[in-house]
Amino acid sequence: MRTITKGAEPKSLTERRATVAVDDPRGYDDYREKEEVRATLVAEQRALCCYCMGRIVNDPLKMKIEHWRCQEHHRKLQLDYSNLLGACLGGEGKSPNEQHCDTKKASCDLKWNPANPAHAIESRLRYLADGTVESADQEFNAQINDVLGLNLAHLKSNRKAVLDAVLKWWRSTPNARQKVQQQIDHRINAAEHQPFSPVAVWFLRQKLGGAAA
Q1: DSSP letter at 58?
Q2: What are the strands, taking DSSP E only, across the chain?
Q3: Which of 3, 10, 104, 199 makes an SS bond possible with 99, Cβ 3.0 to 4.6 Å?
Q4: pTM surpassing 0.85?
């Protein structure tokens, strides 16, 4: 996960919220301009899933609009843009032990929200050499595995590949420490991020802080 900075919501969502009761179960389901929400979410998340950081695109067959607080238990937040995130399909249609992200999360609640600046999501995560993502917060660490399934083998492998690549850069580049901030800026300022690239940013920030090679 990475910090998501929420921007302005689509006008159609504002208008929809003004025309239905806040807890009307049809309020979101009958909202027809979801493509506008998907497009806005993809842009502000730099085309990365809010949870696993894999690629998302503005296509209902390739991504989901995730309710951080689920519709089932938090109906009043169904049209609240601050509660909406862009998520990958997360193994939809596969067995439960192969699912991740929103698909696995279903109606469960999470302790921390990547789109809430006060939750400082990136400070709560670390990555191991094998691609494992974990948190020192035991409750959240359990949610990373049991609610979001973020340590499935293929997700760990993807993160490990990013870590290996940036580690290779670090070890092979002369005066790498003097070039770390440039590398970070290049990655975080891109209009569209490479899948799992925030893992490399995490690694580079460790180096910027003086972590050992």
Answers
A1: S
A2: 64-67, 84-87, 126-127, 133-134
A3: 104
A4: yes
